[in-house]
Amino acid sequence: MAKQEKHPDFDKLDSLISQALLEEKQPDLPADFSLKVMQKIAEAEKSEWQYQPLIGKKSWGFIALILFTSALLTYFSDSPAESSSITEGLNKILAPVKELSFSWLSVFNQSALAFSVLSICSIMLIYFYMLTRKTSFNLEL
Amino acid sequence: MAQPDEDTLIEKAVHGDKQAFSELVNLHSPRIFGLAMTLLKDKDLADEAAQQTFVKAYLNLKKFRGESKFSGWLYRIAYRTSLDLIKKQKKLVPASSDYQFEKLTESEVKYEAVEHKEDWVRDCINRLAADDAALIRMFYYEKLSLNDIADTTGNSLSNVKVKIHRLRNKLKEMLEEKPEIIYHYG
Questions:
Q1: pTM for this predicted structure
Q2: For residue A136, how many C-alpha atoms fall within 13 Å in the half-sphere facing its CB?
Q3: Cα of A122 to nearest chain B Cα, Å
Q4: Mean pLDDT of the region A89-104
Q5: Is A31 on the interface with B (CB under 8 A)?
């Protein structure tokens, strides 16, 4: 044990505290403690599965796919008659990107697309924030 | 048949052997429960904290790299889990800095101090703030090094040294209410 002081009173004090704590009757463990722990572990493992598929690097690809598909659907739903071919569709998607360098407003004027993408991003961010809180246990191990 | 050593049990538990983990629980639960009791001063809460500690440990077992002792790692989880529970229960006894030792009246001191000096010392420790009592337990009972205490509590080494020094002074002051204890000890 590290000593901070060599004062005789502190030596006595150290011995006295150590002795008192050693002689203290340790609290009895609750009955079936180990069993309860193992049951809780089983429950925790069960509840973990629903978060598992979304955790990890693969999930970002999944989110990107959702965002891209949503954006695509939203964009085409504005003018379904014009979206007859993939080439036309791609041209339509690229058009606002081309305009991006000239005017930000021209992109954001397409309110449906911008609004949808932003909404989905916000929802996903909130969802992931909650997910992290649920699974991290604030451990800092 | 010889019992497998702790490293073997940990190795098995990391690979999902629940029986091995259960043995680790049996091995370490008294210390973990003791720490939780020191901090929470309530058997049900301490039970909950100790259980949560082992569940967290199991779920994070792969993060244990063996650089520190397994017992120390568990102790750290137990300490933080107990503090989290205290915050949740809002049962935190006065923080160290706010703590004012209340002098006991003569009528409250019912036992002969010299014969029951250990009881008196334990009583003084129990009257400390929960986190201070836990520090005393780690230092004097668990015989943890100052570095280990710093690691467990998340404080710096110098902070732990200062805290323990102040706690010894505080305990000395408390015990001096009954001078026959400290001066007649031994």
A1: 0.61
A2: 10
A3: 29
A4: 62
A5: no
